[in-house]
Design brief:
Structural class: mainly alpha
Largest sheet: none
Shape: rod-shaped
Distance between the termini: 49 Å
Number of domains: 1
Mean pLDDT: 87
Order of helices and strands: HHH
Strand content: under 5%
């Protein structure tokens, strides 16, 4: 944001640009966590929504 202001742009536009960048970062983090949880859920839980036995054995060590 400071670079845009130093370059001579309007501070309001710099703030809007900064807000858009932060929104994209939060959206990317949310989509990544949702996708990873959907993929992990299939390996960790069985049909009855209970933990899978090999997963529990791996946790116990």
């Amino acid at each position: 944001m400071s670079g845009v202001i130093i370059a001579g742009a309007n501070p309001v536009y710099a703030a809007q640009y900064r807000f858009a960048v932060m929104l994209m970062l939060f959206a990317a983090g949310g989509l990544t966590s949702t996708a990873s949880m959907l993929l992990v859920r299939r390996r960790v839980f069985v049909e009855a929504k209970q933990p899978n036995d090999p997963v529990l054995d791996a946790i116990d060590g």
